[in-house]
Amino acid sequence: MAAIDTSNIKRLTPEEEEQLINARLGMEDRQMIRRVTKQWHQHVNAETRHPESGEKFLLELETFGLAYRKNNIIVKAEQRQVIEYQEKKARLEREALAVLEEIERLKVTLEESQELRRRKIAYDEIADKINAYPTREEQSKQIATLEAEIAAIKEEQEVERRVKRERHDGLTELNRVLDQLRIVGKGAEAVVLDSDTLVPELIVGDVEMSSSQPDGEMEEGEERETAQDTSNARPPTSTLNPHAPEFQPRHSTTSLLRSRLRGDYASAPGSPAPSAPSPRNTQDSNKNDDDVEMGEVREGPFTVKANGTSSHRLVADDLEEGEASDDSSLTPGPED
To answer: Might you name a Gene Ontology BP term for this protein (predicted)?
Structure first.
C-alpha cells in the first residue's frame, strides 16, 4: 500500500479546527434525534402494537438522554477549559509584560554596566598617565631649577648687553681717536717755508670732526680749487745766508722726534701702536736733511688744529742736546 503524502495537506488554523469539531458534534446530535424520532413514528404508526417496539423506543430515548448528558458534561468541561485557557492567557500576558519589564530593566542595567566599565577603563588609562608623571616634590624641584636657570640666563644676557654696550662705547671712542689721529696726520704734512712765515704745504680734505665726506669722494672742481689754493699759498724759496755756519743733521734729534711721536700716539686712549718707519721714509728724511745747504734756514713742520688754526712746532733737529721745546708734543690732544 502506497504511503500517503502529507506534505501537500494544508494545515488548519485554530478557528477552523474549532468549527470542524462543533460541526461533527452537531451532526452526531442530529443523527441521534433522527433515530429517536424515527422509532417514535414507527411505534405510533404501527398497525399492530408490538411490545418490542416500545422497548426499542425507550432504549433509543435512554440512549439519547445519555448522549445529551454526555454532551452537557463535554460542554461544561470545555467551558472549564476555556476559562482555564483564558486564565492561562491572562497569566501569560502578565508574565510577558513582566518579562518585557525585566528585559527593559536588564537592558538599562547592561547599559549602566557598560558605561561603568568604559569609565573604569578610562579611569585606568588616566591613572596610568598620572602615575607616569613625577611627583609634586620632583616637579617643584624641577620648577625651582628651571627658575634658577632662567635667572642665570637673564643675568648672562644682561652681562652680554653690558659688554656689547661697553664694546660699542669703546669702538665709538676708538673711531673718535682715529679721526683725531687722521686729522693730526694731515696736519703733520705741513712744512715751514720761511723762518718768520709758516705756511702749510698740503692740506688734504676737511679737518673738522663732523665731516662725513670721505677723502677720495671729492668732486673734480673741488680738487682743482684745492690744488690752486695750495699753489697760490706757497711762497718763494727763502734766500741763502752766506754767513751761516755749515749745517750738519744730528741723528739723535731725529730719534727724539720719533720717540715723541710714538709717545703722542701711545698717550691717546684706545689708539693702536704706531708702525715702525719704513726704509723709504727714512731715506726721504735723510734726503731732506741733505737738501738743506749751508746758510739756509731749515723749514720745520707745523700742525693744523681741528678749528683751522695752525700751531708752530720746533723741529727736533734745531734743538741742542738736552734742550726741551716749548710744546710737550707734536700733536694736539683730543678736543673736549
So the answer is: mRNA processing
DSSP state of 245: P
What is the signed CA dihedral for 145, 147, 151, 156, rounded to 10 degrees? 60
Q: Enter the DSSP assignment of 215.
A: G
Tell me how far apart the alpha carbons of residues 121 and 115 are, in angstroms, rounded to a whole number: 10
Q: How many residues does the chain have?
A: 336
pTM: 0.30
Could you tell me how far CA 22 lies from the centroid of its own chain? Answer: 93
Distance from C-alpha of 327 to C-alpha of 318, rounded to nearest angstrom: 14
Interatomic CA distance for residues 191 and 138, integer angstroms? 81
d(CA 229, CA 32): 172
Alpha helices in the chain (DSSP H): 14-45, 51-132, 136-188, 220-233, 251-267, 279-291
Beta bridge partners of 166: none
Q: Is the pLDDT of residue 278 over 80?
A: no
Report yes or no: 203 and 302 within 8 Å, Cβ to Cβ: no
Residue 195: C-alpha distances to residues 38, 169, 208, 244, 333 (Å): 194, 44, 28, 14, 26
Alpha carbon 250 to chain centroid distance? 76
